[in-house]
Every structure is written in structure tokens, then in C-alpha cells.
Amino acid sequence: MTTSHPEGPGVGRRAVLKYTAAGVVGVGAAALTQSAAGASAPSSAGEDAALQRLYRDALDEGGGLVVWAGGSVPTQEDQTRQAFIAAFPGIDINITVRYSTEHTGLIDRQLVLGGLEPDLVQLQTLHDFESWKARNVLLPYRPPGAREVFAKYRDPDDTFIGIAVPSFGRVYNRALLTAGQAPRDAVDFLAPAFRDKIVIPDPTTDDAPLYAFYLVTQKYGLRYLEQFMEQRPLIVANSPAANAALASGQRTASLANIGPLSPAPGSPIQYAVPRTDQFMSWPRTAAIFRAARHPAAAKLYVAWQLSVARQRIVLQWPSRRDVPAPTGWQSISHYNSPMTGFREFIRDRAEVERYRAIVKTFIAPTS
User: Fold this and answer.
1) Which CATH number covers residue 92?
2) Per-residue DSSP letters for 169-235?
3) CA 287, 36, 180, 240: dihedral to nearest 10 degrees?
4) Within 10 A of 190 (CB to CB), how many other CB atoms are there?
């Protein structure tokens, strides 16, 4: 629909936005920076200027953007969408959340038959990015700040890049357990006190918690799964469901789950890393397709996600080396989490499915 504007012919809302882009981006970045006040970080002045240029380009190409994001809850990226719209008015961004494996099947179908819907993706299935790169369907792009991203989290040819670092570690209800009482290593969960007190997202339906259990059984052996199941854990569909069980007090601790490094005020959800065990983490990875209908807006989105302001407010760890982790935490590289372990694990699909089949013989979901 076209709407007339009082500015006169040829000077509509998009034109006004185009010429005020610099001010809007500056305000958006400043607002994000203020929301993360207290942590030191490098200057983002150069990044702001780059974002302004990309914003103007995105408006010039039509102001649309379609993002497909991996996740377990359709509303999972609502805050991301709202923040992007606030920073870049006039860009009509649509973010669709599905499990990464569901996205990749649809994308591969559309790449063959035509009609590719997403301009860019941000997914957990890291091996798919390697496959798409080999098929030459990804658009190389090096956003501002890319050189500060850990080398293990980015493609040297700039076809994909990690925009944040989530992980599946230990999570507990801090209103019911002290830090000293909370189980940290996998063997701690076998204590009598945690019988009927554990909740986990189903590891047989998601490669991330599956790999978390793989690391446990690599250290303790498959016998551990027998002992773990004797604790009668509640097995739920996904991490949001596991955290809901923790927050309600129905269960008190989770062996393989995700939670914010800085808990929200009033929330009992506390994330922790193991004392000696390895735990899984991975770069949430983004890439733009060559067939993208809105390549400039897609570049703007990736650059924005890697900006200092955004990196300072990620749920867990930033993917940039020069942006500090939340207060009280160190860089992800400091912890006992193999930085390329998940990529290597899911790359071998035969091994993944073999291990999944084994785990299924132990684990029967309870909800």
C-alpha cells in the first residue's frame, strides 16, 4: 500500500528515514550500550558509522528482511526483533523460529526448487554451513568487528560467522539450593539428595543436549546413564520447559541446560559450569544466502549482532574476544568447553545417530 505524505511528492516516510538514519542508529546503539552499563568494552564509534551506511543501503533496497532462526519456542526471538526495529525504523524484519533441523530441510528444498524465503539464517546445525559453503550458495561478507571474533567461530572465507556463544551446562534453582549445594560435575547428580529433583531437556531430539551427554559418557562411560536414570529425572521437550520446572520448584537442578550468565532480577534460575567435567558450547552461527532478496539488510543484521553493544547483552558469552563476558565470568576460552567440539561431533552424522540410538535405550521422556 502507498500512502501520501505532507512532505510532498517523492519525499515519503522512507526518504525521511533515509536521511535521518545516522541519528537513529546512534540512538539505538547508545540505548543498547546503556542497558549493559558497568562492563568495559572497546569503542564502537567506527561500528556505528558502518551501521549507518548499511542502514541507508537497506532502506534503499526496500526495507525488508527475512531471518530464519534456530530455536524451540516461536517467540524466542521477539526481543531481538523489537530491538532491531527500535534501532532501525523502516526495516520490516520478520524472524521465524523453528528447530534448526526443520529450517535446513526447507532451505535445501528451496535451494533446489527455487523460491528461497530467508535472506539469512542463524542456526545450531553448524555442519550445514559447511555444506552450503561447498555448494557456493552463501554470500561472503566480513562485518565490522569480524576480526575480533574467535577464529574458531568464523569461516576464513567469510561465508559464516558466530554471533554469540550459548552452552548447555548446569542450571539450578538458587532459591532452593546454595552454590555449594548445587551439583556441578555429572557424578554430583547421582547423590541421593537429587533423586526426583533433576530435570533435563530431551537429549534424543536435539543435538546440543545430546552432545552434552556425549561429553559426560566419554568421561564416565555408558554405565553413567543407567545410574542417572535411577535418579528418576524429569525429561521435558526443551530448555524453556526445563527452566519452567526449575523456576516452579518442581525440580531443583538440571544436568544439561541453558540459562543466562546474569540472572534476571527475581528469577531463581542460576547457570553454572562444571568443576572438572567438560561442557558443551557452540557459536550461534549466521550466514547470508547469495539468493537473498535483501542482502543489504541481511548485512546490517549480521553487523548489528556483532556490534559491541549487542555483544555485551547476549544471553551467555560474546563471540568477540574484545568484549568481556558478563560480570563475574571470564571469556568462554577460559572454561573447559571444547570450542570446536560440537562442530566436530555433529559433522559425523553417522556417529551422531549411532549415539542417539544408544541414548534412546536409556531415556524415555516423561512429558
Assistant:
1) 3.40.190.10
2) EEEEETTTS-TTTS--SGGGGGSGGGTT-BEEE-TTS-HHHHHHHHHHHHHH-THHHHHHHTT--EE
3) -50
4) 17
SS3 state of residue 215:
helix
DSSP assignment of 319-357: SBTTSPPSTT---GGGSS--TTHHHHHHH-HHHHHHHHH
Residue 1: DSSP 8-state: -
Quick one: cell of 100?
534448526
Query: What single-letter amino acid sits at 331?
Result: S
Identify the CA nearest to 148 among candidates 159, 169, 163, 127.
Answer: 163
Express each pLDDT in 193-215 by its tens digit: 999 999 999 999 999 999 999 99
Domain count, the chain: 2
Look up cell 569503542; give the residue. 43
Q: Is residue 76 within 8 Å of residue 69, measured between CB atoms?
A: yes
Containing structural domain, residue 38 = 13-164+282-311
Check: CB of residue 356 under 8 Å from CB of residue 204. yes
Is the pTM higher than 0.85? The answer reads yes
Alpha-carbon distance of 169 to 210, in angstroms, equals 12
Same domain, 19 and 116: yes
- Are 267 and 226 in contact by the 8 Å Cβ rule? The answer is no
CA distance 156 to 34: 33
Identify the three-state secondary structure at position 303.
Answer: helix
* Amino acid identity for residue 305 in this structure: Q
Summarize the confidence of residues 132-153 as an average pLDDT: 97
Per DSSP bridges, beta strands 284-288 and 161-164 are antiparallel
Residues making up the chain, counted from first to last: 367
In a domain, 32, yes or no: yes
